[in-house]
Design goal:
This protein has about 400 residues and is of the alpha/beta class. It has helices spanning about 15-25, 30-40, 45-55, 120-135, 175-185, 190-205, 260-265, 270-280, 285-295, 300-320, 335-350, 370-385; strands spanning about 30, 60-65, 75-80, 85-90, 95-105, 110-115, 145-150, 155, 160-165, 170-175, 185-190, 210-215, 220-225, 230, 325-330, 360-365. It is built from twelve helices and 16 strands.
Length: about 400
């Protein structure tokens, strides 16, 4: 949800304008004919949609000498004018803020990291406001049109509320409203994995795919879903919670209250606890656990093999239910991918039903700056799809 004082507004809040703009954003530059084909619109509808966007400078049209029709002038290539507006994206972790300033094409222009010694909402908001001020003071020429904030956990994007974030220990925090008040910007708050999924759908390994899943491995196990070209948010803001798929009913207890969830076996804290148990050593963090496995300490590699089995079964559940064209695996946990890659693939192949096992499984390491870029992408998405009348002021 976006709460705003007066700020930059997108000039054409219609489904057709959003569809054409998104097509050009993800696949452009495009001819009008190709933009219409990708958006499922007639040439007349495309012309009507692009007219105000060209006039306001959000789109530009250049002659394409290679696309000359049989008669007449060259066909024009429509492209997004990335310099027309800027967006801020912030990824909130348990101990750090990662922030980026991106243009309208979601290209990162500046990036900053800031320690987060206090996880209380007020302290986090103050740090975000400081970052916004720092970016605005960096001499940017285009208007800053929105702020996206990505948080792990149960996030209701429509309401702009963090319902529950286990790593921040937040419950029912109206983050969009509070951040809009403290920064003076339109604010979009989303689950961090879902925001990253938007970026992958528009600009990354999911571009052009009607359906894919993004599975993130790290402190938690997350999953973003795209079905029929749309990111699935769920009726109440929760969808794709692969981390809480039960793969071993007799397994360790999860913080959600169940036993044997993927996250309770393959999340970083679960791996650290299990590593301490099997090696009879004090293991303080994931980096130390990884070192023990690479040093072939007895039992250490089996911890990662067990995690790989759990992740593979979780991915198979997604493939069996939704049949995505691709599953993208990312997250900070990919540092250990060499230790559990084979087990993920083997477990996935065994548990996937029939042709679901043919799903393309791709690994894609993404630094936290890309997660912040996902937050910016979510803000761009809100900017081009949300009518001004629906904003809270």
């Amino acid at each position: 949800m976006r709460s705003t004082p007066h700020t930059e507004t997108f000039p054409a809040h219609t489904p057709a304008a959003s569809q054409v703009f998104t097509a050009v954003l993800s696949h452009g530059p495009l001819t009008r004919l190709e933009a219409g084909r990708r958006a499922g619109l007639s040439p007349a509808a495309v012309t009507k949609a692009v007219r105000p966007l060209l006039a306001a400078g959000y789109l530009a049209e250049d002659a394409d000498e290679d696309a000359r029709p049989a008669l007449g002038r060259p066909a024009g290539l429509v492209r997004v004018n990335g310099e027309r507006a800027l967006f801020l994206g912030v990824k909130v972790t348990g101990d750090e803020l990662i922030a980026v300033l991106a243009d309208l094409c979601c290209r990162i222009l500046l990036a900053r990291r800031r320690p987060l010694p206090d996880r209380a909402p007020g302290a986090v908001l103050a740090s975000i406001a400081d970052l916004v001020h720092e970016f605005r003071a960096a001499g940017v020429s285009a208007p800053v049109a929105g702020l996206g904030i990505a948080v792990s956990g149960d996030v209701d994007r429509a309401e702009g509320v963090v319902r529950y974030s286990p790593f921040l220990h937040w419950r029912d925090v109206p983050l969009a409203e509070l951040a809009a008040t403290s920064t003076g910007l339109p604010v979009t708050v989303d689950n961090d994995v879902r925001a990253l999924t938007v970026a992958e759908q528009w600009f990354g390994a999911g571009a052009g795919l009607a359906g894919f899943a993004l599975v993130t491995v790290g402190t938690g196990i997350g999953c973003g879903l795209v079905v029929n070209g749309r990111v699935v948010a769920g009726a109440h803001g929760v969808a794709g919670e692969i981390g809480h798929v039960v793969v071993d009913p007799a397994g360790p207890e999860c913080h959600c209250g169940n036993r044997g969830c993927v996250e309770a076996i393959a999340g970083e804290s679960a791996i650290v606890a299990r590593m301490s148990e099997v090696t009879n050593r004090h293991v303080s963090d994931g980096a130390q656990a990884l070192t023990l496995a690479h040093e072939d300490v007895p039992g250490a590699r089996e911890v990662y093999a067990r995690a790989g089995d759990a992740i593979g079964r979780g991915i198979a559940t997604v493939a069996n239910l939704l049949g995505p064209e691709r599953v993208i695996i990312s997250g900070e946990g990919l540092a250990a991918y060499d230790l559990f890659a084979d087990r993920i693939r083997r477990s996935f192949t065994t548990a996937a039903f029939g042709s679901a096992a043919r799903c393309d499984v791709l690994t894609r390491p993404l630094p936290f700056e890309e997660w912040a870029r996902g937050a910016a992408a979510a803000a761009i998405q809100s900017f081009i799809t949300q009518p001004p009348a629906s904003r809270k002021g």
